[in-house]
Amino acid sequence: MANSTADSLDLYAKVEDLLGVKEVAPTLYAHYLLFLNSIDFDSLLDVGCGSGDFLRQIQGALDILQVKGVDLSPLMVSKTLEQGYDAECIDLCDLKGQYDVLTAVFDMLNYLDEAQLTQFLACVKEHLNDGGYFLCDINTLYGFENVAVGSYIVDDEERFLTVDSDFEEGVYSAEFTLFEKEGSRFKKSQETIRQYHHAIDDIVMLSGLELVQSDDVNLYDFDESDKMFLVLRKV
After folding, report:
1. What is the pLDDT of residues 203-231, one digit of tens each?
2. Are residues 134 and 150 in the same domain?
3. To bridge 226 with a disulfide, which of 17, 100, 143, 163 should be the other Cys (CB 3.0-4.6 Å)?
């Protein structure tokens, strides 16, 4: 279902630590934790679990009875498994079972175009228990236009990464070029990763879920919100 290929997802997995994601993640996770701490639930499925950092933070704080992660990147799933959490490399729509809470953290929905988003949200509803919650965050228009766009270069001696990105007609395109040191040489990998701007009203309509909460999230700029944290419920 995901617009990005397994190769592009695995490339992202190799460089995630170079992008500053881990530094701002706790601020975003706090929104999830604050809400989850206010409800009673026994099971949580994290869709697009990445390296398992979110599951570690949430499980460490709440000690949830059943947690599981799914991701389309085999490399990401292996990292989650290494942290000791149940994880599977599978599309949500192919997964069996229902959960009290589903989460999609760090703009996972933005990686889906409209058709993919429609299918994904239908599967979210299908995998939620009655009364269950879907928690997610999405990039705002400001986040795309003023935070994400531009060029980024980072070098940690073992890896040299460049990211060149732009945002046009609701589509954000980022070209990742990675040089990895292998002995005395560098191996080059290159992938284009795309994200799509989605309005909150569209997500609510397509999901068939009830909007419970929407909060501004400021990760990179104190003046404008670059993300929105959303809570939807299956009623």
Report:
1. 999 999 999 999 999 998 778 999 999 99
2. no
3. 143
